[in-house]
UniProtKB/TrEMBL annotation, chains A, B:
Keywords: Transferase. InterPro entries: Glutathione-S-Trfase_C-like, Glutathione-S-Trfase_C_sf, Glutathione_S-Trfase, Glutathione_S-Trfase_N, Gtt2-like_N, Thioredoxin-like_sf. This is Glutathione S-transferase. It holds the Pfam family GST_C_2. PROSITE patterns: GST_CTER, GST_NTER. Residues 85-202 form the GST C-terminal domain. Residues 1-80 form the GST N-terminal domain. The keyword Secreted does not apply. The keyword Transferase applies. GO terms for molecular function: transferase activity.
């Protein structure tokens, strides 16, 4: 088994997940800056030219960070990071998606449409990036309201993959100069709780 | 238990899923055109003002179509629509996400940035919509290549939630005047197979 990974938020999500599970997987570094993820040999693994990619011992390929995490959830159920019964599994799915669609998607649009890293890969619309950049604090403010009930983690009492996704959004938000607003006390408390975990050094 | 749902692709995905499982759930129609999903009483259920929403008998709320589907997968495991072992569960997750991120996301950008329905809800960038519209046939062509091995469904031999997501992309693509190109024989065959199922009338 090999995990092809490198810089960027999606590889980071998988590395944190593996650390939380205590799983060691041999890793192959894919150099994003050199464009190794767009090289023919890599496109054979993932036609989308994206990392991370998990290659199983029989050659089967799993792409998409959450799909890779779900594979390890199945093979190493403890501690559960996708919930432990029907309702909690639904809640984790819901919160992982809310984090992705509301927050990650908005930050992603800022990056894709403004950062030099992507200028040869798509038609950038800087005005769209700017509108999305202005929306980011509102997305965090929405999450702050949602966390006003004082629960420790996004999906409830237990840390889950949804906290990894949203925590990596906070990390990414900072990288692109959009720190979580200081007055959002509920998000700030949650963020400190999540990013204080040893897995964050993954 | 109640399912709040209405027009649009995400409610449709859940209705198809329930039909495939043979589950009857009482439904409450939310009139998107009248803006009922943005009314205060609805925002109490889902602060994002989006359908579908599942309300359980104890008042617990599940939002996000895939999270709702996952809840029913847990409570009604047969037939499995999210895979049946570690590898197939990972593959279904991978293909559901590829369908969402590659195809659904692109069509969604066309709709959000060009359709009158959304003009009061976000700043529309018509040039961005046009770039995304031109990209849609390339996304279907990518899927066509992926299906060139002749497998019947996206994640392999079995119909799954990934086929529902991608099939609804085909439906949505047509609504916005972007039919799947006729020369993409693998996608055409797959699309006929999927949309010929009785669940498609849901």
């Amino acid at each position: 088994m090999k995990l092809y990974q490198g810089m960027g938020p999606n590889s980071y999500r998988v590395r944190i997940f593996l650390r939380e599970k205590g799983i060691d997987v041999p890793m192959v570094e894919v150099d994003f800056a050199k464009g190794e993820h767009k090289a023919p040999v890599f496109l054979e693994l993932n036609s989308l030219g994206q990392i991370p990619v998990l290659e199983l011992d029989d050659g089967a390929i799993v792409t998409e960070s959450v799909a890779i995490c779900r594979y390890f959830e199945e093979t190493h159920p403890e501690p559960p990071l996708f919930g432990s019964d029907a309702v909690s599994r639904a809640k984790v799915e819901m919160w992982n998606r809310r984090a992705e669609l509301v927050i990650f998607g908005t930050i992603g649009n800022v990056a894709l449409h403004s950062d030099a890293l992507f200028k040869d890969r798509l038609t950038q619309f800087p005005a769209f990036a700017e509108t999305e950049r202005q929306a980011v604090p509102r997305k965090w403010a929405w999450l702050d309201q949602e966390l006003a009930d004082g629960r420790p983690f996004l999906a409830g009492e237990s840390f889950s993959v949804a906290d990894i996704t949203a925590g990596v959004c906070g990390w990414l938000s900072e990288i692109f100069g959009m720190e979580i607003p200081a007055d959002l006390k509920n998000v700030q408390r949650w963020n400190e709780r999540v990013r204080g975990r040893p897995s964050w050094n993954a």
